[in-house]
Amino acid sequence: METAGRNSRPPRPIRHLGGRGLLLCLSALLHAALYAQINVENTVLLGRNALSVDDNVSAIHYFNQAIAARPTHSRAYYYRAYAKFVLEDYAGAEADCTTSIGLNPFLTEVYQLRGLCRVHTENYRGAVSDYSRTLREMPTDEAALFNRALCYLELHEPDSAEAGMDDFLRLKPGFYRAYMFKAQVALEERHDTLKALTWIDSVLVRHPDEPSAWQFKGQWAAQHEAYEAADSFLTQAIAYQVPPRFETHLMRAQVRHALSRFGQALEDYDRVIEIIPEHFAAHYNRALLRALVGDDNRAIEDFTFILGIEPDNTLARYNRALLSEQTGDYRGAIADYTELIRAYPDFLYGYYARAQLRRKLGDLRGALNDETVIARHNLDIAFAKPRRSFTRKVRERSEHELDQYDQVISTTEETRDTARVFGDAVFGKVQNTHTERELLPMFALVLHPAATRGYQSNAYFDEAESLSRRIAPLELATERAERRHFLREPARRLLFSAETKKEEIPVIEAHLSRLDSVQQRDSLLSATDYLLLRAALLRSTYRHNEAQALTDTILATNPDNLLARMTRAAIETAEERTEAALADLALVLTKCRDEERHLPLYNRACLYARRGDYPAAIADLDAAIALDSRFAEAYYNRAVVHLLAGEANKAAPDLSRAGELGLFRAYNLLKQVRGK
Q1: Which domains does the chain have, with CATH numbers?
Q2: CA 260 to chain centre
Q3: More reliable by pLDDT, 186 or 87
C-alpha cells in the first residue's frame, strides 16, 4: 500500500557549531557535566547526519550509543525507529516509536511514523489511532488524512474511508490517486464496477499517462474475457510504466495466450523473466506455451528450472517426461517417470510409458516388470499418450493433480487490486542484498577477518587475548620493512574463520613463512604459542590435517588449553567429524569461565543445527543469549534455525535484534520472512 508523503522523516541536520568559547568560561564541574550531555547530543547529531545521506546502517550504530548512554532520550529512539523503518524492520521500528512515545507523548511526528509502521504490519486499527492522534494536532496534515482513509478501506469501513478521502480532496482536489482510491472503494466495497470505471476514467482525464489506471481497466477487461480490449489497455499501461512492472507483462501474456497470440505471449513471459529471473509462474507458463508451439527443448529447460526450485512438483516432472520422450531423451524420460511412480504408485500410465521406453532401449526385463504391474490391475493399455491441447483453464500453484498438467498457473495474487497505489521508493537498502538462509559459522582464531558492511564478528575469549599480548614482541623483533606486514592485525579476538577472505590466503601463506623465519631466528614464542599460532594460520588456508596435527600436539601435553581445543573443534567441524567436535566443545564448557561460556555454547549450537537437531541448537542459543544479551550472531543463527525448522513466525524478532546490533545482513532475511 502506498502512503502519501514522508512527513515522518527526521529533519535534515544542521551543521554543528562547537561551543568551545563558552565552555572555557564555565567551571570545571559544570564543564564535566555539560561534556557528558554534549557527547550524547553529538552522537545523536552524527546519527542524524547519517540519516540525511541514507546511511541507515551507521545511523543505527550511533543511536545505539546514544541510547546506551541516555536511555531516556526519546528522540534517539525515534530516529533509530526511522532508520529501521527504511530498512523495512517495521516491528522493530514500531517498538522504538512506542518507547519514544512513552518517554515523550507530545512528539506528533512519532505517531506519524508509528502509523506507517502499523500499516506495513497490517495493524490498521492501531494505525487509525495514530493518524487520528496526529490529526488532532495537525487537522490539515495530508499524509495522515490519506493514510487513515486507506486504513479504513483495509478495515472494510467504506463510509469512514470515503469520508476521509473527501476531507483529503477538499485540501488537494487535483490529487488523482484519490480518485483511484474512490474506484477501489466502489469496486471492492460497493461492488459497483461501472462506478469504479467512471472514477478510473476521471483519473485518465487528468493524467492520461497514469499506468495504474490503464492496468486497472486491462485487468477488468481480462476478467470479463474482453481480451482485445484488455490487450489494448495493458499495452497502454506498459508504455507508461517506468521502470517496467513484471505484473503487467504477466497479465498481458495470459491475455495474449487466450487470444492465441502465442509469439507475443512468449515475448511477455520473456520480459517478466528479464525483470525477475527466478519468477516461478512465468517459467512454468512459458514452458507450457513453448511445448504448445513445438519448442520442446526450451520448454524442457523451463521445466528443469521449475524442478530446481520445487523438486516435488509433479506436474513439471510429468511435462518434462512427456517432452523428453518426444525429443528422444528416453533415459531422461524414464528417470522422470520413475520419480512420478515413486510418488504415485498407482500412476498406471507411467508404468505403460516407461515400459515402452525401456523396450526402445533394449531393457526387456524392466519393460516386462512394468507391464506385469499393469496387467495385475486389469488395465486396458490400448490408450494413447495424452495429447497436449490448448487450454484456458487455470490452476493454483499448490494444485498438483496430474490431469492438470497442461493448465497454466494462476497469477491472481500478483496482479490483483490494480487500483491500489503500492510501494515506497526507497532504494539501495541493505535488506535488498540477497542473503541465503544459512547459519553463520563457528567462532575460531583467525588473523585476517573480513568485514561485511563494516561489521566484524568478534567476541572476547581470555586465552585469545593472552596470546595477542604474547605475540606482540614479534613485531618489535622483525626488520622495519617486515614490521608493516607481519601480524599487523594480531589475534586479539576469536573471529569467524569463514569470514577470512580467500583472496587473502597468499598473505596468510606469507605470514606462515615469516613466522617460521622469526621463530627460528629469535625464538620469542613458547613452543605452545608457536604451534597454536601456526595451527590458526594453517586452518585459515584450509590445510586441516596439518593444523589438527599441531593442536593434537598441544593437547597431548596440555589438555586444558582451551584455545587449542576450540581451534581443533573448528577443524573437526570442517572435516565433518561432528562427534569429535562435540566432545572437544563439551570439555571447553566444563573448563572455561562463566562469562565465556556463550562462545562454546554458540559453536555447539552450530554443530547441532548442522546435523538437524534443531531443539538442541535452540536450547544452546537460548543459553548463549541469556549469558550475553548483545550476542548478534546468536540471535541471527537462532532465527536461521527457526527457519530451517519451519518456524518462520519465530524468526522475525531475532532477525530484528541481530540487525539492531549491527549484523545488517539480517535485514534481508527479515524481508524474506515477511515475504516481500
Answers
A1: 278-391 (1.25.40.10), 443-674 (1.25.40.10)
A2: 38
A3: 87
